[in-house]
Amino acid sequence: MKIDLHSHTLCSDGVLSPAELVARAAEKGVDALAITDHDTVAGLAAARQAINEQQLSLQLINGVEISSSWQQLEIHIVGLNVNPQCPVFLQRLATQQQARLERAEEMARRLAKNQIPDVLPAVLELANGAALTRTHFARHLVSIGKASSMNNVFKKYLGRGKIGYVPNNWVEMAEAIQWIHDAGGEAVLAHPLKYKLTTKWVKRLAEQFAAAGGDAIEVISPQQTPVQKRELWALCQLHNLTASVGSDFHQVTTWNDIGKNLYLTDDVLPVWASWPLHASANAAV
Fold first, then answer.
1. CA 273/CA 282 separation, integer angstroms
2. What is the pTM of this model?
3. How does pLDDT run across 60-75, given as a tens digit for each residue?
4. Domain 101-158 falls in which CATH fold?
5. Domain map of the chain by residue range?
6. Residue 80 has what DSSP assignment?
């Protein structure tokens, strides 16, 4: 089976609608897909409806990606098999959305102070009700000619220490893990090599993630080497965690697509080992 447990729609900072995303996943031969938008489960119902209406041979996993804080760093925790109707969970995610709005307001204020005015209204219009992310700011700044690419925006304006950077105000990592468990899900440490930590700090992160009750580490994500995958699986084994895989799909690029190059060797215990996975169009885990 081809499984992808990390993807985004335009309900956060992806570019495809939920219906477009599941259609592309089916086209690419994905059997099971988790939609994991940032701090929201808003796209899940539309995705499931599209699967049913289009009779896609695709199993949808209810997911979310929660932004959390650890050692003053922003760490993302993917929740898999969460209950998207859980009232307490939805209330908790709403606090994250409020934190996103407050951060966006401060980012816009700092940019205005540096001769880039009127950013917030444009970003809100661009997001169109989606969970606000720095990606929305980056897309706007590129569109008005402040940078030549998304990467350049982060280097010039939005990265740590730059004029538009605002320190995160997210829930603590251990609390995010508990939120996911309370919603019936499993907590996955997303793309642990993306945080630009030293090997020592990656090991410390994995250790504290496990101590806080985490369930799995995303051992395969885009642009990882085979050596890095083996090292991450070794951390899983050390801390009795399972392994997850995810493209972290936002849009099609030359180096990434939904379900691309996601595979685990037989010696790796996957997070879905106990799930009732099957390639049925109407399945719901």
1. 20
2. 0.93
3. 999 999 999 999 999 9
4. DNA polymerase; domain 1 (1.10.150)
5. 101-158
6. E
